[in-house]
Amino acid sequence: MSTISKFNEEEKGKLLEDLTWNVKQIQDDLLKEILTLNAETEYIQNFLHGSSAKELFKKNLPIVAYEDVKPYIDRVVNGEPSNIISAVPITNFFLSSGTSGGANKMIPSNNKFLEGYAFIIDLLEHVISKHVKGVEKGKGMLFFLTYLESKSPCGLPIAAGTSWYLKSDYFKNRPSNWYYSYTSPDEVMLGSNTKQNLYCHLLCGLVQRDEVVRIGSTFASGLVRAIKVLEDSWKELCLNIRSGHLSEWITDSGCRNSMSMVLGGQPRPELSDKIEKICSQKSWKGIVTKLWPQIKYIEAIVTGSMAKYVPTLKHYCNDLPLVSTIYASSETIFGLNIDPLCKPEDISYTLMPNLSYFEFIPMEGDSGDVLDLADVKIGCSYQLLVTNLWGLYRMRIGDVVQVTGFHNKAPQFRFVRRENVVLGIETDQTNEEDLFKAVNRANLVLDSSDLRLVDFTSYADISTSPGHYVIYLEVQDKNEDVKGLVLREKIFLECCLAMEDSLDDEYKYGRCHGSIGPLEIRVVTDGTFDALMELSTSKAQYKTPTCITSEKALQVLETNVVARFFNAQ
Ligand code: AMP
């Protein structure tokens, strides 16, 4: 993997062709490089005893989940030398949104990851400029945000992958082409107060509204959230534009200093009038195209758990293309969408063979074979395994992907689902086990109050902004009928708190930063869960779904809700 930031478009195009024609060779060479480089690490030595042969790797190296290698990773976290797992020193850890025992996974990393990230962004620039005409002449309003990092016991930084990239030299010294030209100064992206940063991002984008050709965020949830801030703050934003001065409540010094350059103390009454007129319209349908008339497309990941935001984005953005950019994780970058203007339901990602060594466990069929990237079959679904250059070997990512086609010899994948995730609003991923734990905590509260939990299910409600978890509970009272329950507010509020307290760090982080709203309990009347079962076609094997996805089932629940509780703090 080499930096391609200095390549011209033709060279980038040729590279993309080379990579996608020579998948097998590139993957085999990369595996060889990884095994040779790491032959002396404790982990690889245990299984390969100095060999770097692919056959032995396939035979001896176990397929692992995070929990299996956690003891090795924890040793590095706690200060032992990183050559336990990686020959190239580990310099930082990523906090993955996946959890292990309720805590976020700590994924080891180093500059090799950032090299891959920078590489894929450079390739994306090429792909988008090839498909979207006129983007080179404008700027992007990208709601990039960084979050505070912490330190491992041995002093290595722990951060989210996207934050780490934005704070790195790769971003600081980024190429000067259109794709890296933003309406917001870097200080606004790097500030530590999300609310202030989002406000400033919007102000920058509004002041430069005629130059904005694309709007985006890494994930669709971030963009929806930014639009909500716009809905709440447009009057104040207009006042700032009118006067040329930033609101006093923006206290972050980086934001204040850089915004004074953007605003320049210059009053802009006409611009403020125009924006006010657009925003005071009753319907906000298509607001994005009205406020930013030169916009060509929207850029945000809209697949997987983000697909639920597509209708909201379509409402605000009319028929603008939604470009879902890359497929990545804390473990590695997988690939990019080389057909950026396709419909959201057709989005696939082409895996880049130079980024990590990828393997695939078939989801169906009797073959237990683990396949290489070059050998996957169209239409088949697989679990994805990663072996990277910085200490992970045959690691299950927890994603299921399906082959939809090929570009040259490179397979393209539709993201099918994350295994075992039932609820998610933003990057939080609450699995069945976590949800059961949370409901058990609520059950203890109910139990101590003479109430019995009959059944429960859940739903990620994104009709509110921010979205929030809804837990439907059917509860019996030993002494009263269901109407009595409505009065027991204190108990149900306690249940809400107990559940939120039990959920993982990523959830709490979202709550703390306002990207996830308070968990809500909706109590349903006696017999509602029986009515839910009646909808099922296989009653003999019926199990209450842990999470509701069908509209019909949701209707049954909603018509039977007798009380709602949530903690407003
Ligand atoms: P994290 O390690 O917290 O960055 O989370 C990585 C996970 O986010 C991946 O394994 C996927 O489950 C999900 N993800 C990342 N990119 C995409 C994408 N383009 N489409 C769908 N899911 C994605």
UniProtKB/TrEMBL annotation:
One of its GO terms (cellular component) is cytoplasm. Pfam families: GH3 (PF03321), GH3_C (PF23572), GH3_M (PF23571). InterPro entries: GH3, GH3_C, GH3_M. This is Uncharacterized protein. PANTHER family: (RAPE) HYPOTHETICAL PROTEIN, GH3 DOMAIN-CONTAINING PROTEIN. Residues 349-418 form the GH3 middle domain. Keywords: Ligase. GO terms for molecular function: acid-amino acid ligase activity. Residues 433-551 form the GH3 C-terminal domain. Signal peptide: none annotated. Belongs to the IAA-amido conjugating enzyme family. The keyword Ligase applies. The keyword Ligase applies.
